[in-house]
Amino acid sequence: MTTVALIDCNNYYVSCERAFDASLNGVPVVVASNNDGCAIARSSEAKALGVKMGDPIHLIRDRLNKHGVVVRSSNYTLYGDMQRRVVAAVEEFASEVEIYSIDETFLDLEPFADRDLVDHANAMRDQVRRWTTIPTCVGIAPTKTLAKLANAAAKKNPLFDGVADLRDPVLRSWVLDRFPAGDVWGVGRATATKLAEIGITTAGQIRDMQMKQARGLGTVVLERLVAELQGVAASAVEVIEPQRRGMAVTRSFGTPVHDIETLMGAVAQYAMRAGEKLRQHGLVAGQLSVFFHTNRFKAGAGQYQGARRMALHPMTADSLELLAAARRGVEAAWRDGYAYTKAGIMLDDLVAAELRPRTLFEGDVERRDRLMTALDEVNGRFGKFTAVPAAQGFRRDWKMRAENRSPAWTTRIDEVPTVRAD
DNA sequence: TCTGGGGTCCTAGGACCC
DNA sequence: TCTGGGGTCCTAGGACCC
């Protein structure tokens, strides 16, 4: 038997915004996705007003205004930096820590299993609060899937007061019988529908499925899920970050793009950013895909999706090589006469830079490496886009909207909060 | 005017091989 | 006229996650 906990930050992006702006406390707050498109985080007050995850901001604008909901553009630099602090606050409470997402961390609590784990979890929550101000909930159970479920129960049911320890089988069954099948981690819309067709609507019923039935209805994924709900771990708390398989830089445009030069400018910026990400992770890529498409939500408008995949040999993390490949892809896939609203670059076949296969005719790789290092340093020190290739252009009409972005409170010296005594 | 941006894993089916 | 029985690898697409 293992003992797993999941600690999850409440309304994470909103809580990060509130950490540096007390005026947001007690009022409804929504954090919008890139381009100020959708609601991706909501304070409890905003949830109470009926704002749903993924609601398009422009469709609910009136309601937001009427209730005085504060809308913040997303500030991922801030959220990423705050995550580091949360993880640091949590580490001493577990033997192993797996960062699962920007606001969730799995903990191996096996060595602490004979303590009162509710007390243990509350001490951990206090520490996170003190270090970051961020409120959290904790779920404890024998497997990760059950810990996820326990966490959801801790959040939803006031009875638990923020910490649900479901190691006790009787309590666990009680919760599972009342937990909607579609809310179980790993059960999405398609699977929920299939389950409902055979009368399965609770987590308890999924747990009681025959393995063969689970396999037949879904795939091995559902089979594993049944095992996890039965308390048999199908996945462990993983400390080591797995090798990444792919990487992407994609953005919607603030205004539609009609000409290839402007599109190239956007794609050039994404290529530069993709190279930077590769180098940060010490990786090289073997394949680059570029795509661009029209607004699929717009009925009646001409629709087109352009995409090309280019092999990169030698494998590379050189932004200028990525840029050249992306340009060739755009040229090949371009079609006049459409209003493009989104483009992106995806990298595949990722390999650690030091394991990169060598080829003949590579050119002066070291010199280019030094150029890229210099580029990263300049842009790191003086801000993004200080040094850019001419192809990126100087006008960025297409750039995304972020009208209510909070400052980089914790990561840029010129934007740290100041306190005045007057 | 207007709907995010990342990721992972699994399966089916085609191409190709002996 | 006859037309096996395995393999592997790759890709596209679906489903799911935050």
TrEMBL record:
<keyword id="KW-0741">SOS mutagenesis</keyword>
<dbReference type="InterPro" id="IPR025188">
    <property type="entry name" value="DUF4113"/>
</dbReference>
<dbReference type="InterPro" id="IPR043128">
    <property type="entry name" value="Rev_trsase/Diguanyl_cyclase"/>
</dbReference>
<dbReference type="Pfam" id="PF11799">
    <property type="entry name" value="IMS_C"/>
</dbReference>
<feature type="domain" description="UmuC">
    <location>
        <begin position="4"/>
        <end position="188"/>
    </location>
</feature>
<comment type="function">
    <text>Poorly processive, error-prone DNA polymerase involved in untargeted mutagenesis. Copies undamaged DNA at stalled replication forks, which arise in vivo from mismatched or misaligned primer ends. These misaligned primers can be extended by PolIV. Exhibits no 3'-5' exonuclease (proofreading) activity. May be involved in translesional synthesis, in conjunction with the beta clamp from PolIII.</text>
</comment>
<dbReference type="InterPro" id="IPR043502">
    <property type="entry name" value="DNA/RNA_pol_sf"/>
</dbReference>
<dbReference type="InterPro" id="IPR001126">
    <property type="entry name" value="UmuC"/>
</dbReference>
<keyword id="KW-0234">DNA repair</keyword>
<dbReference type="InterPro" id="IPR017961">
    <property type="entry name" value="DNA_pol_Y-fam_little_finger"/>
</dbReference>
<dbReference type="Pfam" id="PF13438">
    <property type="entry name" value="DUF4113"/>
</dbReference>
<keyword id="KW-0227">DNA damage</keyword>
<keyword id="KW-0742">SOS response</keyword>
<comment type="similarity">
    <text>Belongs to the DNA polymerase type-Y family.</text>
</comment>
<protein>
    <recommendedName>
        <fullName>DNA-directed DNA polymerase</fullName>
        <ecNumber>2.7.7.7</ecNumber>
    </recommendedName>
</protein>
<comment type="subunit">
    <text>Monomer.</text>
</comment>
<dbReference type="Pfam" id="PF00817">
    <property type="entry name" value="IMS"/>
</dbReference>
<dbReference type="InterPro" id="IPR050116">
    <property type="entry name" value="DNA_polymerase-Y"/>
</dbReference>
